[in-house]
Amino acid sequence: MLKPNEKFLQRVYIVVLLVALPIAIYLFFGEPVGLLQTAGAIEAAHIPIVTGLTLYLNHRMLPKELQPSKMIFGGTAIADIFFGVFAIIYLLQLLGMIGSGGGST
Fold first, then answer.
1. Is the pTM of this model over 0.70?
2. Which of 1, 4, 66, 73 can pair with 62 through a Cys bridge, CB separation 3.0 to 4.6 Å?
């Protein structure tokens, strides 16, 4: 019985991840503008999660001598709140709960 070659499997994985998956996403969504909007939505939701987890891990896991100063911690917390509010507003706009007034110009 043949054992799968790990190097070959790694290359197949990379090709699928970097070539086939983007092509499939492009064919599914179609327009590049739609892809950029999707990426923006993912990023808007992703940044608050990353900053929140960074704050949590810095506070809980790092030894005291390696933890960031209170000013850095506060700045990161402010960024987390800012991007969190932005993500909520963006989500509400996508759901149609808030949006542009639709007034005539």
1. no
2. 66
The per-residue pLDDT for range 49-102, each reduced to its tens digit, is 999 999 999 889 999 999 999 999 999 999 999 989 988 888 888 778 887 655
Asked if residue 27 lies in contact with residue 19, where contact means CB atoms within 8 angstroms, the answer is no
Q: Which amino acid is at 57?
A: L
Which two three-digit tokens encode residue 9?
Answer: 């499997």
d(CA 99, CA 78): 25
Q: Which carries the bigger pLDDT value, residue 1 or residue 29?
A: 29
